[in-house]
Design goal:
DNA-binding; 5 strands; 17% strand; alpha+beta; 8 helices; 168 residues; globular; homodimer
Amino acid sequence: MQKTSYEGMQCPIARSLERVGEWWSMLILRETLFGFTRFYELEENLGIAPNMLSRRLNALVEAGMLEKCAYTTRPIRYEYKPTDRARDFADVLLALLSFGNRHFAPEGKSVTVIHDETGIEAVPVMVDARTGIPLASPAYRWVAGPLASQSTRERYATDRRLGSSGLA
Amino acid sequence: MQKTSYEGMQCPIARSLERVGEWWSMLILRETLFGFTRFYELEENLGIAPNMLSRRLNALVEAGMLEKCAYTTRPIRYEYKPTDRARDFADVLLALLSFGNRHFAPEGKSVTVIHDETGIEAVPVMVDARTGIPLASPAYRWVAGPLASQSTRERYATDRRLGSSGLA
DNA sequence: CAGTATCCTGTCCGATACTG
DNA sequence: CAGTATCGGACAGGATACTG
């Protein structure tokens, strides 16, 4: 996760990773989204060293993912509230959760998402909100816009789809 | 991304990151899903050093994300085909792409996903395939299963939902 | 072309000690 | 409690040279 490796990258995936790609950042974001916003809560829940926590929190504030708010004065104490941008990151966490449950949970799932009313476990999938169709299907194509680099545009000149098994 | 930090972690998100959390791994997976499966293609497309590429490829094979297949003999040459597990990872990449486009694309989006028939840009969202309802909504709850650790179960004893703004 | 071998640097991360 | 300061280790990642 070196600065040099992604500096100037135009790929949106790389850009996302640039801001929140560190290992702890994702887990910190998850905790804050669940309402654990104080230093000691994060420290306890995650078992993270205080210096690392401090560093990551500052980076996340810098990236516009967390907002540093005083929740008490004398002494001054801050909590780290997720911004809209962080809330927007929830889908990434859900995707990772789902993937982990499906593939790296040999002894069973430890955490799942359920429909509150029915209690039935959700089947997470990325879809187009406009059509309801899964994005990882041949009905969807990745395209490079005019702002993409020349090389990127070349690579996306041919059809680039997920979900089509005979792609290669 | 040290081994020590996530060894023995039971959180599915941490588990996912454990296998594919490295910066390059995600981008390599994206390329292979688009059909770029040869060493030189990946080297060119990503601008990655050959030793790093070799290291990451072996790790991804080890993690069951890529399959090493000879595509020619004399001399023996291998390509790295994405497994079903890797295809299952597409949603994570889509989530990262979407997030990056929405929040870290100041000069505009470089790569987007479009509906092939209509050419209309997709609006990616994680939903429950069973109901079509977005998972980052109050209708869904995160719960700890019996296999979660004691501390995890305690943390999820109270309602843990995304999407409810007044959570904290 | 498809890698491997070596060396180097940055930095993530952990452990610990310290301060208001 | 909420951090900061400092130290050290492990490793991702880069650069380069080399082999079949």
